[in-house]
Amino acid sequence: MAAQLQHLGYEDEKLQRVMERLPCRDVQASMLLALMGEQCSYPSIFIYGHRATGKSHVIHTLLKELELPYATVSCVECVSVGLLFEQVLLSLFGSDSASLLSRSPSLSDFVRVYKQLCVQASAKQTRYIVLDRAELLRDMEANLLPAFLRLQELVEDNVTVILLSEIVWDKFRPNTGCFEPLLLHFPDYSKGELQQILSEDSHPSYSPELYSAFINILLGVFYSVCRDLRELRHLAALHFSKFVEPLEQGKESDTHKLWRNIEPHLKKAMQTVYLREVSSVQWEQQLQMEEKEAGVVRGLSAHAHVELPYYSKFLLIAAYLASYNPARTDKRFFLKHHGKIKKTNFLKKHEKTSNHLLGPKPFPLDRLLAIFYSVVDSRVAPTASVFCQISSLVTLQLLNQVGHDDQLDAPKYKCAVSLDFILTISRCVYPMLYCPLVTDWNHCQTPASAAL
Amino acid sequence: MCTLSRQRKGSIHELVQMILRERFCHQRLPEKPVGMESQHKHLLELLRRTAVHGESNSVLIVGPRGSGKTMLLNCVLRELLEVKDVNKNVLPVHLNGLLQTDDRIALKEITRQLNLENVVGDKVFGSFAENLAFLLEALKKGDRSSSRPVLFILDEFDLFAHHKNQTLLYNLLDVSQSAQAPVAVIGLTCRLDVLELLEKRVKSRFSHRQIHLLSSLSFIQYLDNVRSQLSLPQDFPDTKFYDEWNDSIKTLCEDQLVVDVLQSHYNSSKDFRSLQLLLMLALSRVSASKPAIKPTDLLEASRVCMVDSKANILHGLSILELCLIIAMKHLNDIYEGEPFNFQMVHNEFKKFLQRKSHSIHNFDKPVVIKAFEHLQQLELIKSMDSSTAKIQKEYQLMKLLLDHSQIMEALQKYPQCPTDVKQWAMSAFG
């Protein structure tokens, strides 16, 4: 590989240094270097691959170490095109070049100013413009992406535009076509490569073998869910201190026992830190407090700590029942003496699709109140306080209002919470009668109503 | 002595790379454009009539992307400007639909390029109406004998037709029809239906002269083109290397493997640009230690060009995400392509876990939702309705943007795919 690149006129030590900083990316880096060449390169190159596969890292390392003239812009930061143009001109031509652009420059202004600056500072080597998160260019002005792809032709200068993205090129192509860039794929890391890269951040005071064993355990738990290098590094950094805790305390030194110690923590982390329910600071505090008090980790979206007034809970349960049980079954569930319900032909055909799969259905206010009165265990008068609790539930986005705001006499609602939340609430209000919910799809019945 | 020869080898190789890269990357003009002799003659004749005899004309060059419209125009202009009188007189004005997105901007650009009196340095003074009046005035004062002919070259002509009222097009074509300063309006576009985009009053002022560049190369001519593109020019300094290289290119083009590769490329697209992309990829594998293009280089380059990018992305998904995609495929098979939501997919996945799986762990619902959202971010699935308000995210209807065959192929190539997942994918009804 090094022999192949020798002809490019860069010193061997520089190339060696560059390759050391790019583990497991030799093939892609050498391909990029060969494409970039010495004097000129293809007008636009599109590099795609999953997150954290090293696209920006490889490009920036190559450009910086080999001291090539370049400008790098992340399209996330460019809320307006003027910011994009300014940053490009600043990086390529120095700090007083951006002042030549007008207040809100158009692409035409940018090209004109670029041509002027080129005349003063012509390029022997290719200039590179790197656009990161290029998928956002599609949402900016429609002419921006096609123009950048053929920038070399428009400004008549030796410039190459490199686009980096997670999304494939087929989704970028405009309707009437454009200049097709050279496509380059950065493949994902294999399990062995991930192991190799993660083992490189080993802690100085522990042996690399211990760290590799730890990484092995981590990958065993998380690899089937997540292959993102950044997430795995974050998780490794958080958990290593817990892993070596028994070693420090002098209790265990066998890897197998260490694994048994850390495994439940990793499993818990999958439900909390991995989902960003809990910040890493909270997680570390939790791990330290573990031995003193076994507390439940309070997550961001855990509805367990949302406190609702007494009647609101019943209203919400009634709303859930109204959304997920069809109206014809109300008579059966909520009246003491009911008859049999005959299934029509239509119902027999569509038995398979349960409401739990299709989502909540809208219901009118009257139905909600009817179910509410039969669900609540005491007599409730229909005062304004009950009604305004319904409005607060809508504001809390636990209920959704369907239809126009103008319909004052028959508003319709939909329940916007999941079964787990309702379970948690019903545990509070039916402490005696709580039983685990099993939903029977054919009959669309929830035993919460059966418990009444 | 050996360092000298290595240096010499290095610099020769650099020269080869530079020459060939200029051809493929910088679109250096060939001596004569290939396969478009009659179009070349037609356009040259037309422009000569404007430049030398002062006749006003308008023409549209129409052809798909990469078929050589700009190349043809630049070749014709190069030949035209070789005539002494023409070079001093003609005023070219280059406009591009991608840059000049508005008539106001376009007008300022024209004024700037013609260097009219209301331009000082770089700034154009006056409002749109004033500029337009000034320009038309300047053009009207001339006549065939005494004023300089102006060539208006409008790249991406179809984008100009989207401007408000098509003012610029109307005025330019109007000038070209009336007896004023001689102008030639040359439009280049990739849309075959460009005339449908023009308004009636604009279309009537257009001369309806179109030059079509629908590439009509036969495969033999295509192969010849490849050979001439890869060969070094006559004036190469090292004659020994020149002979070696051109001979190797000749044998390369006769190799059966190479002919097959080029045939498959020819069958998918005959245009010059995709050919240049292929040759550029092959060229990047040439180095000082390997100073020739081998058939395997072209094969490898072709493989890179023809790869399915979505298959590459599918290769990097985690097992959980792959299982979700297989669940979606089963849903598509059962319900014949009707949109699905997350709950249905999760339901299918749970059925698989209960009945058939030994190797996949039963993940919590939030973890599965995170995997689902990752697939959404990669744009492998897409929401059906754009209004995301008021429907919970588990119940939003989505559709899968992958084909049955793509998924099955990806499964074959997936690294260390558990057998129960593969069997689930291949079974008929989940």
From TrEMBL, chain A:
Q: Where in the cell is it found?
A: Nucleus
Domain Origin recognition complex subunit 5 C-terminal, residue spans: 308-428
Record domain ORC5 lid: where: 211-276
Q: Gene3D superfamilies annotated for this entry?
A: P-loop containing nucleotide triphosphate hydrolases (3.40.50.300)
Gene Ontology cellular component?
Answer: nuclear origin of replication recognition complex
Broad class of where this protein is predominantly found: nucleus
Pfam families documented for this protein: AAA_16, ORC5_C, ORC5_lid
Q: Which domain of life is it from?
A: Eukaryota
Keyword presence, Nucleotide-binding: yes
Q: Which GO terms describe its biological process?
A: DNA replication initiation
**Sample GO molecular function, one term:** ATP binding
Give the quaternary structure.
Answer: Component of ORC, a complex composed of at least 6 subunits: ORC1, ORC2, ORC3, ORC4, ORC5 and ORC6. ORC is regulated in a cell-cycle dependent manner. It is sequentially assembled at the exit from anaphase of mitosis and disassembled as cells enter S phase.
What this chain does, per the entry, is described as:
Component of the origin recognition complex (ORC) that binds origins of replication. DNA-binding is ATP-dependent. The specific DNA sequences that define origins of replication have not been identified yet. ORC is required to assemble the pre-replication complex necessary to initiate DNA replication.
Name of the protein: Origin recognition complex subunit 5
From TrEMBL, chain B:
Q: Which GO terms describe its biological process?
A: DNA replication initiation
> Which one of the record's GO molecular function terms can you name?
DNA replication origin binding
Q: Which InterPro entries match?
A: AAA+_ATPase, AAA_16, ORC4, ORC4_C, P-loop_NTPase
* Pfam families with a match to the protein in the record: AAA_16 (PF13191), ORC4_C (PF14629)
The family database entries (SUPFAM superfamilies) matched by this protein are listed as: P-loop containing nucleoside triphosphate hydrolases
Subunit text = Component of ORC, a complex composed of at least 6 subunits: ORC1, ORC2, ORC3, ORC4, ORC5 and ORC6. ORC is regulated in a cell-cycle dependent manner. It is sequentially assembled at the exit from anaphase of mitosis and disassembled as cells enter S phase. Interacts with DBF4. Interacts with POLQ.
Q: What family is this? A: Belongs to the ORC4 family.
> What is the recorded name of this protein?
Origin recognition complex subunit 4
* Organism, as annotated: Oncorhynchus mykiss
- The gene name on file is LOC110495382
